Amino acid sequence: MHMADPALENIERDVMEYDVVVVGAGPAGLACAIRLKQLQPELNVCVLEKATAVGAHALSGAVIEPGPLDELLPAWRDEYKGIRVPAGRDEFAFLTRTKRYKLPTPPQMNNHGNFIVSLGNLVAYLGAQAEAVGCDVFAGFAAAAPLFDDQGAVAGVRIGDMGLDKDGAAGPNFAPGPEIRARTTIVAEGCRGSVAKILIKRFRLDAGKSPQTYGLGFKELWQLPPGRVEPGMIQHTVGWPMDQATYGGSFLYHLDQDRVYVGFVVGLDYADPRFQPFEAFQQFKNHPSLKSLLDGGEVLAYGARTIVEGGWQSMPTLEMPGAILVGDAGGTLNVPKIKGVHQAVRSGRLAAEHVLEAGATAGFDSRWRASPGGLELYKVRNVRPGFKHGMWLGIANGALETLTAGHSPWTLANHADHSALLKLDQIASPDRGWGERSLKPRDRVSAVFFAGNAHEESQPVHLKVADPNICATRCAQEYGNPCQHFCPAHVYEMVDDGAGGRRLQINASNCVHCKACDIKDPYEIITWTTPEGGSGPNYQSM
Predict the structure, then answer these.
(1) Band (430; pLDDT cuts 50, 70, 90)
(2) Does the pLDDT value for residue 3 go beyond 50?
């Protein structure tokens, strides 16, 4: 966390010692912690989670392949009591503005044997299992920065301070964050983690790799009138409201008790600076085929998060002295399958086994890439980058890659999302017809309410803008301040500066921790840092 008060840099901090510290209580981190204790019960293992409770920041579709979880916890199907609906039939469709055309379901989207779950519920269950085997699980502890030993190896993390005022100085309730020191650090923060970002840069883990690319996903939980839901049905669409050059699509997962998950994903490599992902999500919900399903229903929860989409060629090196990246922090999600939970569990488990067998972190990267999880990513490595020339060419390329089982003699490259954004004078934005919003929530501020967001207004702004003058000058002229458009929570706003100009106002308390700003900002001057532990969304049953 950025410190405005230099006196805080040298403050005395409590030190806690562990054999292994796991940063992030998601499926990857908890799978790692559980496996460590299964194999070596005497290990001292600590799991840190920035949310107020384990599972409160967990957000995914989420249709899961149960195999890796069955292997880790054979009794989970009997013990887990959260949302879990066996997958039924699959549907894949192409949308125009008013029509819906059914298409053949791609083989990767065959969900026979899978489950629709709430990732928040599932992660809460895994957290309880980690505690049951003897792990110390600390919710509300946000890892602010990595620690290093005298040789430069990762030696743990520092927890963010509590009770700082808006200027970053110690307030009356100041409590310095302790240092959590460990022989091995497992970084499992999820997509675009702040500690992972520091480590990737410091150890040049992305050297020789294709740039990482991301998607921005929206999800809502709806309660519908009786009789509309077909429990277990899994529906995906492509096409409208996206144009042919913009990657993305939707999901509709039918639950029990007349509930349904409604979701939409936009590739953050889009070119139009005026494009508004939240508005595209609203358009999708108001498509005739969706509105007839949702009309008269009630939205119960909303969330948004970024999704790591680069795959095999964009995965950083997953190891460094003293630490390992697992799960989405390492880019293990399988985009064509639209699944990452099974990969997260696989990578976390494998990291635990590697650390105990090898006695060090060295060698994990090659071991993961040669494992079933790594080979799964290699097989589909060319599907996502094939969409950079448009939807239809992307679908054709995906079909070819499926037919050849990934044996193409080439590997397509990804490109950094911020670099894909064109300037205002380089692109003519189409009339997208924003405006239809009869279904709630109708705007981003209302949506944040359904995310259960909570940030102390008095804490420092955790979104750091290196040079706000760029926002009011170059960015306004060249891109039209796209941060106002891509943020799903209305965090960024250009307001009157009182002197005839405009200035950037950051509504940090709206932030749902999606990190799209850290990814899509064309000048790369926005840095997402951890707010006080316990801050942020509270995703109930998402």
Answers:
(1) confident
(2) no
Residue type, 298: E
Its pTM stands at 0.96
Q: What is the pLDDT of residues 272-311, one digit of tens each?
A: 999 999 999 999 999 999 999 999 999 999 999 999 999 9
Q: Which residues contact 539 (CB under 8 A, 6 or more apart)?
A: 55, 56, 57, 58, 59, 120, 301, 303, 451, 452
DSSP letter string, 132-150: HTT-EEEET--EEEEEE-T
The phi and psi torsions of 256 (rounded to 5 degrees) equal -90, 180
Cα–Cα dist 520/526, whole Å? 9
In angstroms, rounded to a whole number, what is the distance separating the alpha carbons of residues 115 and 110? 12
Question: Do the strands 214-223 and 298-308 form a parallel or antiparallel pair, or are they unpaired?
Answer: antiparallel
321: cis peptide before it, omega within 30°? no
Under the banding of pLDDT at 50, 70 and 90, the label for residue 364 is very high
When pLDDT is averaged across residues 445-466 and rounded to a whole number, the result is: 92
3-state secondary structure of 179: strand
Residues counted in the chain: 542
Q: Which residues contact 172 (CB under 8 A, 6 or more apart)?
A: 163
Average pLDDT value for residue range 365-391: 96
How far apart, in whole angstroms, are the C-alpha atoms of residue 462 and residue 508?
7
- 186-196: b or e for each residue (b if 16 or more CB lie within 10 Å)? bbbbbbbbbbb
Q: Are 45 and 20 in contact (CB under 8 A)?
A: yes
- Give the separation between CA 222 and CA 229, rounded to whole angstroms: 11
